[in-house]
Amino acid sequence: MARPLRIQFEGAWYHVMNRGAGRRDIYHTDVHRRLFLALLGDFPNRFGVEIHAYCLMGNHYHLLLHTPLGNLSRAMRHLDGVYTQKFNWLTGSDGPLFRGRFKSIVIDGDAYALQVSRYIHRNPVEIPGLTDWTAYPWSSYHAYINRTDSPNWLSRSVIYGLLGGDAKRYRSFVEQGNDMEISKFYASKRISPILGDKRFKERVLAEFKGDRREFPILHQVFMPPSIEFIRQAVCSEFSIDAAGLLFSRRGQSNEARLMAVTLAHECGQLRLTEVAAHFGFRHYTSVSSTMQRYRRKRDVDKSLARREARVLEMLDTNKIMSQDAT
Length: 326
Prior knowledge:
The chain is α+β, with helices and mostly antiparallel strands and 326 residues long. It has 2 domains: 12-208, Transposase IS200-like (Alpha-Beta Plaits), CATH 3.30.70; 227-316, Chromosomal Replication Initiator Protein Dnaa, Chain: A. The chain contains 14 helices and 5 strands. It has helices at residues 30-40, 43-47, 72-91, 109-121, 141-144, 157-163, 167-175, 180-187, 198-208, 227-238, 255-266, 272-279, 285-300, 302-316; strands spanning 12-19, 50-56, 60-67, 103-107, 194-195. Strands 2-3-1-4-5 form a 5-stranded mixed beta sheet, with helices on both faces. The two termini are 29 Å apart. The relative contact order is 0.11.
């Protein structure tokens, strides 16, 4: 069965969550938490995604994100995928870390971003034995109330603006507790994928079905690029044919192959076993080590990073619409 499409559009606001497989912890030490935050901090520069709030709990996380470019899935695939690989390497483990794809709730930012930020920041209230939840260090609340310096990738001005205040006023707002509407929304056994009033929901749902008259900005529902298009984009960048992506010789680096393998997993959402089949690996574990080798090389090779950026731009031009353009 095909995966359901994400509701994605330029300028969307989201409450994003994911939980460990089997409710297991996804952070064992502060090293893991700092690693996760470092990857999250790449969002503004790498994907143009704004981070407005976060909270890292033991076996799950919460994020409040704004996507001017309508590319939530691409950013989250990178975060969850790369973090899983690095976590497994650090802990000597293998296999999936999260229970599945991340959960995202589209929210009416003007009406609910402030309340959702409070809900996210109050998550540590539920931690057993924690006497002072406001002292919990692994959320953006500390930065919001100026208890610690704010990282340059955290956006606070919008939330402050919605409240019409500053750190002091925000602290008072959060410590008042969640309002009844938000508490009821998140207490539901089947949480709605849209948080907003009736009019907002109708506009989103109408657009998702292809009616653009109600909500013109909501015009794209993205599917991952196909493996064929990823191959074409990489081959075009490196001026090679498809056969050039299949060979790998000991002692020689095939950068085009390394890039194609990595993007097939990160952008194409292919499983490791599927990537292995497409690129002729004997075992899927070799795919993971190949991607790690590519990322290490890309992180120090600026020319390779620029080549990847051009390929990603080509992939962005191949976004698949839910309906034909009108």
